[in-house]
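Hello,

Our lab assistant flagged a job as stuck in the queue for most of the afternoon. It eventually completed. Since we weren't sure the result was trustworthy after the delay, we are filing this so someone can double-check. Below is the sequence as submitted and the structure that was eventually returned. Let us know if re-running is recommended.
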Amino acid sequence: MSQILNSLAPIFLIVALGAALVRGGLLTAEVLKGLTGLVYWVALPALLFMETSRADLHGSGVERIVVVMCGATAPVVALGIVYARLARLAPATAGTFVHVAMRGNLAYVGLPVLLYLAASAGPAAPRPSVIILAFAPFVLFQNVISILLLLAGRQPFGSATVGALTRGVVTNPLLVAVGCGLLADAVGLVLPSPLAPTLDAVGAVASPLALIGIGGSLLTVPVRKHWGHAAVAAMLKVAMVPLAGLLLGRWLGLTHGDMVIALVFLACPTAVASHPLVIQLGGDEALASTAIVLSTLFSIAPLALIVGLS
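-- returned structure --
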């Protein structure tokens, strides 16, 4: 119980702080937008670059973690498609339903939870470099699949679609930071002493600022209608996806620490970033916003259980 409190209580208290700051008017919508941009474009890339530039890939087992996470997501995508057809959802609603049932909030929930766990769980805790090296390819996988789901049935696939996906990948600051960090590690680049501590300091604020942003964003995301479908999507996201990961991880023989990394990422609630993406691609905004809030609430119990077993 103390392990759960030590690892999860700071996470949700900081999320609650973000909500309280918005509710109290100290964090306006404009400031919240700037804060989210600061985390996404500056703080998280600094953290990811510094950790990957120091990564030790020897015997890390990252490949199997990624296989488990991608493999656990795939059957839930298929299950979501079956549900959408049985429920006779309109194409835009169906694509949104599967999208919110599989795309987790990896950067703003998964990373902070795992990094706090790594700092508080002692020598057996997951290594930050392994956490981040598992994070990057799974982000890529989720982004590509989620965009394809939203585009399905809305427009034919062609060069424009491929171009949009490619631009989304090569301009993603998180993926670029990991790629640059791995390159720096491969060539043995050593940053000059004023720069390395600066990037470390900037990266250190990524997790708390991300959690404050999550708390504030939950109060600004509109929640309306589609409660039934949203609840089903939320349960698929925070219960079925990690359950599939647990079964696949045991079958592949993941170590305990690697299993914790996979399950925390898989149990993350639906990404808040799904809401503007759904709007941009003509999906069902109401379903997306409701699923985000419900999955965030539902994720507390699975994440507490996973952390308690760590």
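-- support follow-up --
The delay was a queue issue, not a problem with the job. The result is valid. The chain has 15 helices and no strands. The chain has one domain: 2-309.
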